[in-house]
Structure formats: structure tokens, C-alpha cells
Amino acid sequence: MRKLAEHNIPLREASITQVHSVLRDGNPLIVHTSMFANALASLANPKQQQQWVPLAEKNRIIGTYAQTEIGHGTFVRGLETTAIFDPETKEFVLHSPTITSTKWWPGGLGKTANAAIVMAQLYTQGKCYGPHPFFVQLRDFDTHHSLPGVILGEIGPRLGINSQDNGYLRFDHYRIPRTNMLMRHSQVLEDGSYVKPIHNKLSYGTMVWTRVAIVHSCSKKLACAVTIATRYSAVRHQSELVPGKPEPQILEYQTQQYKLLPHIASVFAILFSASSVLRMQRNVAASISKGNVELLPELHILSCAMKALSSQDSTQGIETCRLACGGHGYIASSGLPSLYTSTTCTITYEGENTVLLLQVARYLIKSYRAGLEGLPVLPSVMYLTAPSAMHQSPPLSNQALIEAFRISSANLVKETESRLCRQFNLEQNFHYAWNRCSVALVHCAELHSRYYMCEKFLSTVESIRASDRVRSVLQDLCRLYLIHHITLNQGHFLRSGTLSGVDLSTLEEEMYELLAKLRPQAVPLVDAFDFRDELLGSTLGAWDGRVYERLYEEAQKSPLNKTDVSKAYHKYLQPLMKSNL
Ligand SMILES: CCCCCCCC/C=C\CCCC(=O)SCCNC(=O)CCNC(=O)[C@H](O)C(C)(C)COP(=O)(O)OP(=O)(O)OC[C@H]1O[C@@H](n2cnc3c(N)ncnc32)[C@H](O)[C@@H]1OP(=O)(O)O
Ligand SMILES: Cc1cc2nc3c(=O)[nH]c(=O)nc-3n(C[C@H](O)[C@H](O)[C@H](O)COP(=O)(O)OP(=O)(O)OC[C@H]3O[C@@H](n4cnc5c(N)ncnc54)[C@H](O)[C@@H]3O)c2cc1C
User: Fold this and answer.
1) CA-proximal residue: ligand 2, atom 24 (nearest)
2) Cα separation, 561 vs 559, whole angstroms
3) pTM beyond 0.95, yes or no
4) Does 2-197 match 207-376+396-523 in CATH topology?
5) What cofactor does this chain's UniProt record say it requires (predicted)?
6) Which residues form ligand 1's pocket by a CB distance below 6 Å?
7) What residue segments make up the domains of the chain, in order of their start?
8) What phi and psi values does residue 47 have, to the nearest 5 degrees?
9) Which helix (H) or strand (E) segment is 57 a member of?
């Protein structure tokens, strides 16, 4: 917090700095600096912002975002916490009517936060208007004791990020002023009448913002992992590549290059896509301020797509990096286990990936059908019904590969839509038919998302003007990325007829050549991510390559090494050894 103040970084921008990486096992303030700060900035009206933002900036108020309940995370409309307007006192009464309505998971809620943005079902004049955000004080601002009517605690140990004190929260007819409803987009007036927003999903805006932030953070996490594994692979010598010759650096093995280089490429693919979605988010935010919500659905879908793909890719990439470090990748001091546990949760939180991909698929099917009917569709999905342009580019050029992605994606959507129609004819119920096609629908969403990411990678690399040599290395990396993802998805390209078996063999051959070509660039590429050793926090990945010394030094810090003979010997082992059991 002191660093943020020194550098004049506003609270809501803190989460895109590296400051949170200082903590190894989760940051109890991350939801305060990210979601809580963003909810105030985007969901509170100017008067409310004046009231709470300065206090949050000074950390007098430490907040969290309390939406998920034990019973419902994905299905936001199913939340059970109620906020009933009482016109007599001009207050909302917050209540948790069931066990399943208990708020569960919010980061920092257990012990750190003294306030929360609570999502609750809004009732006024006897009618329910769905989930709305409320500013709620949970603890006394001086003593930090929980307030009467508020029951809260921590939910217990998790796979990782255990310093984040994820919490639970219940309300027992807890009263808050009417003016604590965040009223930028919708309002409840003094007489209890409801003023609806210009788009009924504007109150979900903090989730959209966070999904975009997660994409950015996934590229950082993966960058840390590839830095550790690549540097280690340059230090580690093992086995014989040529019998009788000295043991080579493990980075010389083609299989090791295949484990690492595509994930180095992936860091850039995710980063460039994150920048593109961030630009769109800023445009949409500016439009919303002027009352225009036309591009909100496009932003929602793009943020779902990129959050799902980047969390999946970075989690898999980090695990591959851990495995690429052999046994030493399993030791906590390598930094890789905590990178994994703090990244795999991004697959689940802020919208479980399958659910987000189904949102993308719904948009693809709707847009495809609209396009067929000649209705207007938004730019990112025009290609679904636009004529093919496969023959305009030289065969197997980067542009041709992007076109192959585009056509294969359009083809898969077309095929899946036909399947959906057939299923609908059998079931006579759209929802059952949808469920029966949902595996294929997820594949549509994944391929569309991959197409977007590949396209952003290529267009960004081609726009680099600063240095020919940098551009040349990034072009090779981008080429590797395109070919790698084509080889992983061969079936889609064969089915769409965009690539033949011979094309795929040619591309595979080129991929192996690229691995060898990029091998000398591996260490410079990860060095260019420029992580300080303190932030990387890894015995395997430090700048100076003193891997073995650091592993040995770190082992000395183990509490078990404080004494030669442990207490457990006297208490358990010695009696066991003497017991003749
Ligand atoms: C280092 C920086 C890192 C920063 C990150 C900080 C990390 C902090 C640590 C942890 C944070 C974790 C926090 C959380 O997890 S908070 C809880 C998050 N919860 C979720 O994300 C819930 C997921 N569910 C949903 O979002 C939705 O309910 C839904 C699944 C998307 C939609 O459900 P449903 O289909 O029932 O849809 P609705 O009836 O609600 O919607 C119908 C139409 O609305 C469109 N829609 C939905 N959402 C939005 C939106 N946000 N914006 C615009 N439009 C939206 C939807 O597409 C439908 O449109 P259509 O035209 O097809 O009818
Ligand atoms: C580390 C961590 C931190 C979190 N922090 C916060 C926080 O700060 N604030 C907060 O409010 N919440 C937080 N959450 C909660 C998080 O947002 C939810 O866990 C998440 O949205 C998933 O919801 P769920 O747990 O209800 O899963 P479920 O929706 O129950 O998912 C279980 C399974 O059902 C499937 N499924 C569900 N619906 C569908 C569907 N329509 N179609 C197909 N399959 C479906 C899913 O794909 C999944 O496989 C956090 C969670 C974690 C793990």
C-alpha cells in the first residue's frame, strides 16, 4: 500500500501492477483493490463515490465483493439473500433466509474486510427486481468487531491462496440506509419506486471488469512459470544426448523445447489479447457514460472468451513448466506449486469456464442465425456468415493459417447449429436440445476464442515498428503458436477442408525446425519479462542461475532442520522402535 501511494497509483489500478505478487500465497487485499474499488467506481453514483472512494483509497474502509452463496455461484439470478425496502424507515433490510443463502467465498471477507459490496435480490413495493449491489458495513470501523446482525467468518483451508481469508457471511434482518444501494444505473426512490437501468446487466459490470483483469494476470503468472522453467533448463544438465559426450543442458532436448517454447509464445498471445479487450472495455465504459450500451454484449462475450481461454492455457502451461523441472519443480521453493494453485482457481472464479464458454456459444449461434437472415451482427462474429477468403493468401502463410482458423470456426458453428436444429426437432424443446449439444457448443466457443487470440497475436506482432530483430523473433514465436494450436486441433481443420493431411505434415515439420531456431532465444525472451528475483521468488529461476546453492540454502530454513533430532523422535519414533510392533 505504501508503494502504491509513493507511485501515486489509484486503488482501482493497483491490481494490474505487480504489487500483489509480493505475497506468495494469496493477497487478503486483492478483492479490495480490484473488485471492491471497481464496483465503487462503476456502480456507485457520484455522490456515493465522494462518500466512500476517499475512505477506501485511505484504507479506512477495506471491502470485498460478496456475491456467491453456498447454494449459488454460477446462477446469479438464483441468489437468495434479500434486500427488502422498508418505506417507513427508508432502509433496506438485508436477510439470509436459508443455509444456502450464506455468502461463501468472498476474498478477504473472513478477517480482513470491514465492508462489502453485497449482491442481493432487491424487493420494493412487493416486487422482486433481481440481484442488485449494496454497500454494506460489516465491522466496526474502530474496533473491527462484526456488527450486530452480521455473522461472518473464514471458510477454512483451500487448495491454495490461503492468505486470502475467503469468508462466509449471513445477515439477520440487518438494516442499511436506502442510499447504500449502489445507484449509478438503477435506483429505489424514497417512496419505494424503482428506476430501471438502461441495460439490465449493468450491475454485473464488476464481473466483466474483473474477467478482463484476470486475462492480464494470467499472462503474468505464465510468464513467471516459463521464466523459472527456462532458466532452470539452461542450468540443468542431465543424461547424454550423444553417448559418451558431456551431459547437455536439458534445454537442448527437443522434447524440453516443445514443453517450454509454445508456452513462452502463449504469454504474448494472452498479453496481446488482454490489451485488445482492455481497449474495448475502455471504449465501452466511455460509451456507457454517454448512455450507449450497444457494445456491452460484445464486451461481455469477449471477456468471457478470453478469461476462459487464458485461465485454461496459463494453468496448463504452469503445470507443464512444473513437470519440465523434474523433481525440483515439486518443491515449494521452486515457486511453481504456488503459481499453479493461485492460477488454477481462475478457471473457477469470476464465472466457471464451461459456463462462460456456453455464453460465448450462445452468442455465436444467435449471431450465425442473425447473419443468415441478413440482420446486423457485431464485428467479431461477422465472419460466421461472411464469404470465405481462403484462396487470397499464399498457402500455409500466417494469413492463410488465420483464415483456416476462421473458416474452421465458422464451419464448426454451422455444423453445431444444424445439430441443434435436428435435436430441437426431436425434443421440441430448445433448452433440452441445447443441453444435448453443449459439448459441441463448448468446442465452438473454444475454437472461436483461439481464432481471436491467434489473430491478435499476429496483428500485434506485425504492427511492431521499433526493431526488426525483435519483430523477427516474435514472428517466429507467433508462427510457432499458430502451428502448435493447429496441430492440437487437427480434426477441426481436416473436417473443414481448410488443411489437408499433407499440409499438417508440412506444418509439423516446420514446428520442429522452429523449436531449434528459437532455442537460442529462449533465455533472452524470458529475461525480457524482467521479473525481479524477489517477485519471482524461486530457487530454480533466479537471474544468477545458482540453482543448487539456493535449493541447499532454502532447505536449511526448514523448521525440521532447527535441531538434529526432532521432538517426534522422542515422542513417537523411539517408542515405536522399542515396541517390537
Ligand atoms: C492481478 C489482477 C487480478 C484481478 C483479479 C482479482 C482476483 C480476485 C480474486 C478473486 C475474485 C473472484 C471473484 C468472484 O468470483 S465474484 C463472483 C463471480 N461470479 C460469476 O462470475 C458468476 C457467473 N455467472 C454469470 O455471470 C451469469 O449469471 C451468467 C452465467 C453469465 C448468465 O447467466 P444466464 O444465462 O442465466 O443469463 P441471464 O439471464 O443472467 O442473462 C441473459 C442475457 O444477458 C447476457 N449477459 C449476462 N451477463 C452479462 C454481462 N455481464 N454483461 C452483458 N450481458 C450479459 C447474456 O449473455 C444473455 O444475453 P442474451 O442476449 O443471449 O439473452
Ligand atoms: C479462490 C476463489 C475465490 C473466490 N472469490 C470470490 C469472491 O471474492 N466473491 C464472490 O462472490 N465469489 C467468489 N468466488 C466464487 C466463484 O465465483 C464461484 O465459485 C464460481 O462463480 C463458480 O460457481 P459455483 O462454485 O457455484 O460452481 P457451480 O456453478 O456449482 O459449478 C459446478 C459445475 O457445474 C457446472 N455448471 C453450472 N452451471 C452450468 C450450466 N448452466 N451449464 C453447464 N454446466 C454448468 C460447471 O461447469 C461446473 O462443472 C471464489 C471462488 C474461488 C474458488
Assistant:
1) 73
2) 5
3) yes
4) no
5) FAD
6) 15-16, 20, 30-31, 34, 65, 67-68, 73-74, 76-77, 107, 201, 204, 207-208, 210, 213-214, 217, 296-297, 300, 349-351, 355, 359, 362
7) 2-197, 207-376+396-523
8) -65, -40
9) helix 46-57
Q: Extract the residue ranges of the chain whose pLDDT is less than 50.
A: none
Q: Residue 371: what residue type?
A: G
Question: DSSP characters for 93-136?
Answer: EEE--SGGGSEE--TTTTTT-SEEEEEEEEEETTEEEEEEEEEE
pLDDT digits (tens, 9 = 90+) for 381-432: 999 998 665 566 889 999 999 999 999 999 999 999 999 999 999 988 999 9
| ipTM here | 0.99
435 C-alpha to ligand 1 centroid (Å): 19
**Could you tell me if the CB of 167 is within 6 A of ligand 2?**
no
CATH 3.40.50.12780 holds for 2-197: no
Contact 228, 259 (CB under 8 A): no
pLDDT at 178: 98
Active centre residues (catalytic): 350
Packing angle of the helix pair 438-462, 468-488 (nearest 10 deg): 160
Minimal-distance CA residue to ligand 2 atom 52: 349
**pLDDT (tens digit per residue) in 422-456:** 999 998 899 999 999 999 999 999 999 999 999 99
Give the per-residue pLDDT at 302: 97
Annotated binding site: 68, 107
Q: If residue 84 lies in a helix (H) or strand (E), which one and from where to where?
A: strand 82-86
Q: Which CATH superfamily is domain 207-376+396-523 in?
A: Butyryl-CoA Dehydrogenase, subunit A, domain 3 (1.20.140.10)
